[in-house]
Amino acid sequence: MRYAILLLGAPYSHQASHSALRFAHALIARGHALQAVFFYHDGVHNAARLAAPPQDERHLTDEWIALHAEHGTSLEVCIAAALRRGLVDEREAVRHGKSGHSLEAPFELTGLGQLIDLGQRCDRLITFAP
Amino acid sequence: MLLHVLNRAPTTSRVYQQALAMMGEEDRLLLVEDGVQGALPQMVRHFSEVHGRLFALREDLASRGLLGRCDASVQVVDVDGFVHLTEQAERTVSWY
């Protein structure tokens, strides 16, 4: 089946990111395809390029990137939720006159329409919330 | 049949009441994260109306030291079982 995950919880504040990652690996292990993870609300912080957790802790941003690299899962970040929390890619940084960017590929800024599309395109959409 | 997923304990949030109110006769309820506390013998009465359709996530029980302490009426599933439940359900609804 085609799955998508909606992640609403911030990393290191709530269990949502860990739960979502665990579920992502389990569904892939059962032979399903994880089409996309949509990061929304405080979940957008999972995409922070500058995240630098202690080395003996899980690096959640890198784990999402690995999921993309190994399984082709797209990592879609709600642009409205991201911009107001200081998560901007290079293009948005220029557009808003910021000196640096905090989000980069494979994470992509996208709109809520993409979430609706995922809901229609995928067989299952599972929400992980704080 | 829908799968409802609840991540709050009955002692900290009343959202479980909304979940129960919205559940259809065939629907199932999976307790995850802090929600697994609802599977304990002293809490499970809150979920009496979904007797036989109540599940709890093994990994979240284990991380809270609650494995083996669930009420006998609760079906314990691991994350693989969680995926299986989502396969069987038409849709999944998360309550938080």
TrEMBL record, chain A:
Main location: cytoplasm
InterPro entries attached to this UniProt entry: DsrEFH-like (IPR027396), Sulphur_relay_DsrE/F-like (IPR003787), Sulphur_relay_TusD/DsrE (IPR017463)
Keyword set includes Transferase: yes
Keywords, in A-Z order: Cytoplasm, Transferase
Subcellular location: Cytoplasm
GO cellular component, as recorded: sulfurtransferase complex
A GO molecular-function annotation: sulfur carrier activity
Pfam families: DsrE
GO biological process, one term: tRNA wobble position uridine thiolation
Superkingdom as given in the UniProt entry: Bacteria
Similarity-based family: Belongs to the DsrE/TusD family.
UniProt protein name: tRNA 2-thiouridine synthesizing protein D
Organism, as annotated: Halomonas korlensis
High-level lineage: Bacteria, Pseudomonadati, Pseudomonadota, Gammaproteobacteria, Oceanospirillales
Automatic annotation (TrEMBL), chain B:
Pfam families linked: DsrH (PF04077)
InterPro entries reported in the protein's UniProt record: DsrEFH-like (IPR027396), Sulphur_relay_TusB/DsrH (IPR007215)
GO CC field: sulfurtransferase complex
Domain of life assignment: Bacteria
Stored SUPFAM superfamilies: DsrEFH-like
GO biological process, one term: tRNA wobble position uridine thiolation
PANTHER family xref list: PROTEIN TUSB
Name this protein carries in UniProt: tRNA 2-thiouridine synthesizing protein B
